[in-house]
Design brief:
This protein is of the alpha/beta class and about 450 residues long. The protein has three domains: about 10-105, 3-Layer(aba) Sandwich (Rossmann fold); about 115-310, 3-Layer(aba) Sandwich (UDP-N-acetylmuramoyl-L-alanine:D-glutamate ligase), CATH 3.40.1190; about 320-455, Protein-Tyrosine Phosphatase, Chain A (Alpha-Beta Complex), CATH 3.90.190. Helices cover about 30% and strands about 25% of the residues. The strands form three sheets. A ten-stranded mixed beta sheet has the order 8-7-9-6-10-11-12-13-14-15, sandwiched between helices. It has a six-stranded mixed beta sheet with strand order 16-17-21-18-19-20, sandwiched between helices. Helix 14 (about 420-430) runs parallel beside helix 15 (about 450-455). The longest helix is centred in the middle third of the chain and has 16 residues, at about 280-295. The chain is globular, with a radius of gyration of 22 Å.
C-alpha cells in the first residue's frame, strides 16, 4: 500500500541529495524563491552548483553522513529530496532514512507542487525540454505568467527554472523514465510523441504505451490534452497537432526565408500565415504548434503568441549554434534516439542543402543502442561523414556484441570513423567539410568548447 504523500505546506526548509542535476537544481531554485532555507550535497562542483551558490543556496561536496547541518535536523519541518543517481550507500542518505525524515524523489516533490497549482505537463519521448521552454516563454510573455521546471537551460531565462509567485500555472516536464510522470496531477498536458524508449525499464512497447496512457488518465476532469496526431494516447475531446497532416492544428510551408524560420499554422478558426520562430528546425516548428494549441486553450491572444515565438531563443544543447558563419557552421544537439536524429538531420539539410555534414555521435546506453541498432545505422548513414565515440554507459553494464565498432560496421557511409573524444576534435579541426554537429546525451558536451576553439582556428 502506497504511503500518502505529505502536503508541501507542512515544510519550510529543503535539503537536496544530488542538488547539481538539471532537474534537482530547478527544484532547489523553486524552494529558494519561496523563501525557504535550502542546502544540499553533490559529488562534484559544476557551473550549475556555482550558480546555485551565487543565489544563496549552501552546497557541499563531501559526504557529511549524520553530521548534516543542525538546521535541517528538524524532522517535522525539513523536506529531504534525492535523486536515484546518488549512491545507495551515501552516508547522508543512510542517516536520513534511519531517522525517518520526510524523504522523497524529485518526481514525488513535483507531484506535490502540481497538486497545489494548475500544472501543464509536457510528456513525450522527444521534445519535452524545448516544448516546455517555448510554453513557459509564451506564458511569461502573457499576463498569465507561470512557474516552470525545465530539463535544460532556457536561453531566454538563462535558467532551468522560471519563477512567478503570483501565477496559478506550473509548466513541468512529465518524464516517462522510471514512470516518474505518474506522480503528477496535470491540469492539462501536451504529449509530443510516444516512440518506444527506456525498454530497460518498461520491458516492452506495450508496457511503455500503457505507461503513457496511465499518465494521460491523470489529467483532471476539466482539463485538456494536446497530442501530436500520431501519439498513441487517448482522451475524449483530445486536441491534435502536427505538420503536413490532418489535425486540429496543422503546420505547413516550413521554410527558411531571408534569415527567418517561418511556417503557416491552420487553427480550428483561422490560418496564421508566416509564423516566425526564433530557432530553426522542423521538429521545433511542431513543438511550437503544440504550444500554440495549448496557449489558445488558455485564452492567450495570437499577437502575444506570435511575439513570444519570434523572440524564443532556444535551449542549451538543442540545435544550439556554436559557430555560425557563411563558411563554417557548428551545431550541438542532445539527440539520442533515432527519431530525434531524423528530425535533426532533416532540419540541417533543410537549412544547409549545399553543405557537407560531419556528425560526431556518442551513443547513449547499451540497451538503447541494442533496441534501435538498425534505426541508428539508418539515420547516421544520411550524414556525409560519421564519427562515432564509444557508447556512454550511464547506469548500465556492457552488453555483449553492442559496441560502437559494431554500429560503425552497419553504417552505410563512405567516410566513417571510430575515435576517442580527443581524436574526434583533432580530426574535425583538419577536415575540409563546412558543417559539424556533435550529437548525444552523455558527456559529449565536454568536447564542445575545445571543438569550437579548434574549428575557429
Amino acid at each position: 500500500m502506497k504511503i500518502a504523500t505529505p502536503h508541501i505546506s507542512q515544510f519550510d526548509r529543503a535539503y537536496f541529495l544530488g542538488v547539481g542535476g538539471i532537474g534537482m537544481s530547478a527544484l532547489a531554485r523553486y524552494f529558494n524563491n519561496l523563501g525557504w532555507k535550502v542546502a544540499g550535497y553533490d559529488k562534484t562542483p559544476s557551473s550549475l552548483t556555482q550558480k546555485l551558490q551565487e543565489e544563496g543556496i549552501e552546497i557541499h561536496f563531501e559526504d557529511f553522513g549524520p553530521s548534516i547541518p543542525e538546521y535541517f535536523q528538524n524532522i517535522e519541518k525539513t523536506l529531504f529530496i534525492y535523486t536515484p543517481a546518488i549512491p545507495k550507500n551515501l552516508g547522508e542518505l543512510l542517516h536520513v532514512k534511519h531517522k525517518q525524515f520526510a524523504l522523497h524523489k524529485r518526481s514525488e516533490v513535483l507531484g506535490m507542487i502540481t497538486r497545489s497549482s494548475k500544472a501543464i505537463g509536457v510528456a513525450g519521448t522527444h521534445g519535452k525540454t524545448t516544448t516546455s521552454a517555448i510554453l513557459a516563454h509564451i506564458l511569461n510573455t502573457s499576463e498569465l505568467k507561470c512557474n516552470a521546471f525545465l530539463g535544460g537551460i532556457a536561453t531566454n531565462f538563462q535558467s532551468n527554472f522560471v519563477s512567478s509567485k503570483d501565477s496559478e500555472y506550473t509548466v513541468v516536464e512529465a518524464d516517462e523514465f522510471d514512470r516518474s510522470f505518474l506522480e503528477l496531477t496535470p491540469f492539462a498536458s501536451i504529449v509530443t510523441s510516444t516512440d518506444a524508449d527506456h525498454l530497460d525499464i518498461y520491458s516492452s512497447e506495450r508496457n511503455f504505451l500503457d505507461g503513457f496512457q496511465s499518465y494521460v488518465d491523470l489529467i483532471v476532469e476539466d482539463g485538456f490534452l494536446i497530442k501530436q496526431v500520431h501519439a498513441k494516447v487517448n482522451r475524449e475531446n483530445a486536441i491534435t497537432y502536427g505538420i503536413d497532416c490532418k489535425a486540429n492544428y496543422t503546420g505547413s510551408n516550413v521554410r527558411f526565408s531571408e534569415g527567418k524560420f517561418l511556417f503557416d499554422v491552420q487553427t480550428p478558426k483561422s490560418l496564421w500565415k508566416s509564423v516566425e520562430l526564433g530557432i530553426p528546425g522542423i521538429h521545433n516548428a511542431e513543438n511550437a504548434i503544440a504550444c500554440i494549441a495549448t496557449s489558445i486553450q488558455l485564452g492567450i491572444s495570437e499577437d502575444i503568441i506570435r511575439l513570444a515565438l519570434q523572440t524564443f531563443l532556444g535551449v542549451k544543447r538543442r540545435f544550439e549554434y556554436h559557430i555560425r558563419t557563411e563558411n563554417l557552421v557548428y551545431i550541438d544537439d542532445y539527440a539520442h534516439h533515432p527519431t530525434e536524429l531524423d528530425a535533426l538531420i532533416s532540419s540541417t539539410q533543410l537549412l544547409y542543402p549545399n553543405k557537407k555534414v560531419t556528425g560526431v555521435f556518442q551513443p547513449h546506453l547499451f540497451s538503447r543502442t541494442r533496441d534501435f541498432f538498425d534505426d541508428f545505422a539508418t539515420q547516421l548513414s544520411r550524414l556525409d561523414e560519421v564519427i562515432l565515440l564509444p557508447i556512454y554507459p550511464a547506469r548500465e553494464e556492457p552488453i555483449s556484441g553492442i559496441t560502437s565498432d559494431a554500429l560503425l560496421e552497419k553504417i552505410n557511409c563512405e567516410s566513417k570513423h571510430l575515435f576517442s573524444p580527443n581524436e574526434a576534435i583533432e580530426y574535425c579541426s583538419k577536415s575540409e567539410n563546412d558543417l559539424f554537429i556533435t550529437i548525444g546525451a552523455g558527456d559529449i558536451d565536454r568536447i564542445i568548447e575545445p571543438m569550437a576553439k579548434k574549428l575557429r582556428r
